[in-house]
């Protein structure tokens, strides 16, 4: 069993002054699942990189992406091993059963 601190355990993981999706203290690993919309996925937002979404101007997908990259770089510079994946990639890798489970069982936030 790998001990991981994450919000699903009702503990917010914070490392280097930043919120992260998960943290493994024994291995010093930071786990991040980047939501495509909130982090400006370059694959999902190819043609609208600099367009502000109506719900959050003036943040563009490019701005969100740059903030995500900066956070990842900062954590790496502090000595954490970052394990990261984009939401679209995780969905592509899931089996149909896994996908259906994640869509019907919401995590505790």
TrEMBL record:
Region of interest: Disordered: 1-22, 47-66
InterPro entries: Restrct_endonuc-II-like (IPR011335)
GO biological process, one term: DNA repair
Segments passing through the bilayer: none
Protein name: Uncharacterized protein
Organism: Photinus pyralis (Common eastern firefly)
